[in-house]
Design brief:
With 190 residues, the chain is mainly alpha-helical. It is built from 9 helices and 3 strands, in the order ααααααβββααα. Helix 5 runs antiparallel to helix 7.
């Protein structure tokens, strides 16, 4: 945060909008004025499955016939967030080009997202299309709503995986990218 403030104040000085020294440069003195941030100590990472366990986990998932298993399956293959996959609509999927276009109002960044789909992800979407209802690929039991946000968590408990979270699969993907691919640092930022 201090770095950003310093850059902004430096830019304002260069553009002639302010004069004097930049107070954000005085690192040693800022601690006397600003409260100590506890955010770092409060960060709690979502429990994740080690990437090496994904093949056996997916095989187990494929044996489960319920909708929650298909939603979780698609989430794993696309490394998307829970609400992005829960609120997925049929018209967002272009199975010919194998791309899922998620509108910006459903992404954390607020920007539209284009997600490439592997063959198995396309198969999951294709098999879900006939059962789409209320405008959702994965409708819930309550009329007009998508599948519950607890459905995948409940599935994980039933699979005897209480130590992992649905969001943790994004971390699993990130770990795999970091360890097994020649990725550009920061391409997949959680």
């Amino acid at each position: 945060m201090r770095g950003r403030i310093k850059a902004i104040l430096d830019a304002e000085t260069v553009m002639g909008h302010r004069t004097g020294s930049n107070p954000a440069r005085y690192v040693d003195h800022l601690q006397l004025v600003l409260p100590r941030s506890k955010k770092r100590s409060q960060v709690r990472h979502h429990a994740a499955l080690p990437w090496e366990d994904i093949p056996s986990f997916v095989r187990d998932l494929e044996q489960r016939p319920r909708r929650a298993a298909r939603v979780l399956h698609l989430l794993i293959f696309t490394a998307t967030r829970t609400n992005e996959v829960r609120f997925a609509r049929p018209e967002e999927f272009d199975l010919d080009t194998r791309v899922w276009s998620i509108p910006g109002d459903r992404t954390k960044s607020g920007r539209p997202l284009r997600v490439p789909l592997c063959e198995r992800a396309c198969d999951i979407v294709l098999s879900a299309l006939p059962k789409a209802k209320y405008g959702y690929i994965f409708p819930g039991c309550k009329e007009g709503l998508p599948l519950s946000n607890m459905a995948m968590l409940t599935l994980l408990r039933r699979m005897s995986r209480p130590g992992i979270t649905v969001h943790g699969f994004r971390s699993t993907f990130r770990d795999w990218v970091a360890e097994c691919t020649e990725s550009v640092s920061g391409v997949f930022a959680a």
